[in-house]
Amino acid sequence: HISKLPQVEPSIFSVMSALAHKHEAINLSQGFPDFKSDQELIDLVSSAMNSGYNQYAPMAGNLELRKAIASKFELLYNSSYHPESEITVTAGATQAIYTIISAFIHADDEVILFKPAYDCYEPAIKINGGKPVAIQMEAPNYGVDWGDVASKISTKTKMIIINTPHNPTGTVLSEKDMLKLQSLTEDTDIIILSDEVYEHMIFDGLKHQSVCLFSGLKERSFIVASFGKTFHNTGWKMGYCCAPKELMVEFQKVHQFNLFSVNSAMQKGLADYLQEPKHYLELANFYQEKRDYFLSLIKDSKFTFKPAQGTYFQVLGFEQITPEKDVDFAKRLTMEKGLAAIPMSVFNVDHTDDKVLRFCFAKKNETLKRAADILQALN
Ligand code: PMP
Ligand code: GLN
């Protein structure tokens, strides 16, 4: 066989965005804002380019940026990561995730992940010869059954991947969940890959439970983050990861040969922009208002929902509207009604939970209004 990933097809995000484009539909499918990144950040990046940040950055990233990231961890979580040895700037969270998995997963290692799961974890595990071990979270609460996790941990378990706030469900892990994860893995070498790209998008006073808040987890964990999510520029593909030094050494052995280093001017611009914590602290309110606005517009529709606790995605149940499966309904909604969303079932074990769609509300209010008008009119 030539293919190392015979089952892999174009991602649902590419498929739905292309369909939205073809039918000129409002695109609430793939997660990206339809508004501009802050002009101040754009100006900082251009001025970095103009002042000479145009050659290779250091392998681990611009040191000013790594220091700014370390300060953010101090400020938000009272947690220290050494800028010189425990932080690496990456080409988005996706590259960090792929590189972490490549650096640690040997053939036949097991990696526990929770379904519905963001789509980039499994192919990275498989291409490295690892075995994904899926735990299904059940609708509508999508909570983790820690008894199930305990039963699936074995001597082969090398890594557990968590994601909070969670894409696609919009749920967040509680302190209790994190303590459970800590107690289940405490006396093991299991590495935790904690995908925290939505850390700043958390609502209703809930607190983001970063793995770095739990000393028994932090010592074995990678945290992955995305500037694209935080600063409204997903196309820049900028992110980073943090981990204790011994783990970061292994990460960088791979990073230096699959990338070497990341866009220099953007790193300098982001380093300057991060000096002002309000740039990320204001995000929770900003997106909570968008979520509330969107939900207020569709509250009398036939869709059912629980408000997202975090992320910029809202899951809507459509059982009262059509008996179709989510994949079919998502396509019809795009082609016939002009509104694109993401079907939930593609992220699940055996494609279960096929009566909900995920809508991205990182959009201008006028876009949300036009989308809501379409949803309201569905009977
Ligand atoms: N993890 C999750 C849960 C995501 O939703 C995304 C992006 N949508 C990523 C990782 C990848 O982030 P990036 O665009 O920075 O590669
Ligand atoms: N993370 C984005 C989402 O969940 C998609 C990014 C991508 O297209 N790979 O919509």
UniProtKB/TrEMBL annotation:
Name by which UniProt lists this protein: Aminotransferase class I/II-fold pyridoxal phosphate-dependent enzyme
UniProt keywords, alphabetically: Aminotransferase, Pyridoxal phosphate, Transferase
Domain of life: Bacteria
PANTHER family: FI04487P
InterPro entries noted in UniProt: Aminotransferase_I/II_large, Kynurenine-oxoglutarate_AT, PyrdxlP-dep_Trfase, PyrdxlP-dep_Trfase_major, PyrdxlP-dep_Trfase_small
GO function terms (MF aspect): kynurenine-oxoglutarate transaminase activity; pyridoxal phosphate binding
Domain Aminotransferase class I/classII large: from-to ranges: 25-374
Annotated GO CC locations: cytoplasm
Family affiliation: Belongs to the class-I pyridoxal-phosphate-dependent aminotransferase family.
Pfam families, per the entry: Aminotran_1_2
Cofactor: pyridoxal 5'-phosphate
